Amino acid sequence: MSLSDKVVIVTGASSGIGAAIAEVLAREGAQVALVGRNVSNLEATQATLQQKYKGIKTLNVVADVTKEADLIVQQTLKKFGRIDVLVNNAGILASGPLADLDIVEFDAVLNTNLRAVVLLTKAVLPHLVKTKGAVVNVSSCAGLRPFANALIYGVSKAALDQFTKIVALELAPQGVRVNSVNPGFVQTNIHSRIGIKDEAYKTLLDRAINSHPLGRVGDVFEVAEAVAFLASSKASFTTGALFPIDGGKHNLTPR
Ligand code: NDP
Q1: What is the residue range of 100's domain?
Q2: What CA–CA distance (Å, rounded) separates 112 from 144?
Q3: Which of 23, 51, 112, 199 has its CA 20 to 30 A from that of 13?
Q4: 254 occurs within a structural domain
């Protein structure tokens, strides 16, 4: 897929969708900087990549994306000497209505899902200009259409989508492409991290299955394959696009 020897940064590579993205990019021959905070989970992703794709070059960057953009760039350049692709995948969830809004939670979600993306993309920018590289943001179906009880998360992802479109316009003259994938429900740790477990998770999952027109939820590798496509030269005439990977859910009218 023309990702051979490309140097790619994947944030949130220690879990779920990010780990799958790292795996698909490694399969396509990329050299991958794996970013996350949980050291043992990062090492698990790295071990999977090295076991499946012999000779693959990887780097673990233990970093908080909300605070350490420069460290991520410096460590990647020190190891690989260039940056071709940035995948802004790290993200956190929140749910609940405006009446119950916790402003600390609001700040934390906006910090991770939006502000950190802005800062890391800015830090990587000069290096992407040199390589005529690409950015792929992992947004959400919740950025494309409203969902009741997804106020903070939806606002963070809608803002991220506007960031994708604006920066795509800004960077097009320099040959840097910027796109996003917008997944529907995918089974990962993201829900348990905010305490949705057991019966509550089963109820949520059943509802999610029924609310996607294709009649099921998504798989991490379905998202990862789309990210790899947008990162590669196969998408060389695509920029500013928001690519729904959501079983058709973005076209449903909100109730
Ligand atoms: P997970 O909870 O499984 O993984 C989240 C990842 O983000 C982890 O690797 C975590 O790293 C990382 N992360 C979070 N905060 C930080 C931080 N401050 N610094 C560094 N890393 C951080 O979730 P998913 O894989 O499901 O989510 C990945 C992306 O996909 C998110 O942007 C999410 O919004 C989006 N998405 C997910 C959907 C779903 O249904 N699962 C649907 C639509 C979009 P660590 O644990 O090491 O801190």
Answers
A1: 7-191+219-245
A2: 19
A3: 199
A4: no
Cα-to-centroid distance, 190 and ligand 1 (Å): 6
Backbone φ, ψ for residue 102 (5° rounding):
-105, 115
In a domain, 252, yes or no: no
pTM above 0.70, yes or no: yes
What is the C-alpha separation between 9 and 12, in angstroms, rounded?
10
**What band does 139 get if pLDDT is binned at 50, 70 and 90?**
very high
83 pLDDT exceeds 90? yes
Q: What is the mean pLDDT of residues 151-166?
A: 98
Token pair listed for 53: 């794709």
Enter the tokens of residue 171: 């960077």
The CATH number given to whatever domain includes residue 79 is 3.40.50.720
Pull the structure tokens for residue 168. Answer: 């795509």
Residue 183 CB–ligand 1 contact under 6 Å: yes
Q: Check residue 81 and give left, alpha or beta (phi > 0: left; psi -120 to 50: alpha).
A: left
**Residue 164 in domain:** yes
Q: For ligand 1, atom 39, which residue shows the shortest CA distance?
A: 186
